[in-house]
Amino acid sequence: MGCAPGLKPARTDFKRGLWGWHHSKMVEASRVERLWLAMAVAQVWTVSVGCQAEEVQRQEPRGELLPAQHIARRRRKRPAGQPPTRRLSCVVRGRLGLVAALFNAEILPCGRLLTEAWPETTTSPRKLPSASALRQRERKREQKRRARARARAAA
């Protein structure tokens, strides 16, 4: 999986202050230009490292080794050929990879920008249930469990 669709989240990460641009107090245009150039290079570097890390993760076998009757295969909500949704943008994944390499005193990865075809089908993002809805669902499950236990005890 390349990073063509991942570039959009990367831009929003950039806008949200990933590189700390909002903390700079520069007023001289030549300094701002140099800072923006450095941030652009850092952005491309982290996206390329994130793309490469995502490709490595994609090549690992995931559910193919599971038996056909396994619960993980039965609960699949997306088409079989569609990759899972991205949990991290390529820029955040790349930045985490670079920080991990620095922390482990490893050689910094260069990264590689990979292309991917546009998806044939898309799934709309699901809104996560609120905490109160989760509590309510758990309460109903507990009530059902207790009712079944009472029915078994009465039988």
Quick check: average pLDDT? 79
Structural class: mainly alpha
Q: Give a short account of the largest sheet.
A: none
Helix and strand succession? HHHHH
**Which parts are unreliable, with pLDDT below 50 for 5 consecutive residues or more?**
1-11
Strand content: under 5%
**How many separate helices?**
5
- The whole-angstrom Rg is 23 Å
What is the helix fraction of residues, given as a range? 40-55%
- Work out the number of β strands: 0
Q: Give the overall shape, derived from the CA principal axes.
A: elongated
User: N- to C-terminal separation?
Assistant: 55 Å
What is the gist of this entry?
By secondary structure, the protein is mainly alpha-helical. The chain has helices spanning 7-15, 29-59, 71-74, 90-103, 131-154.
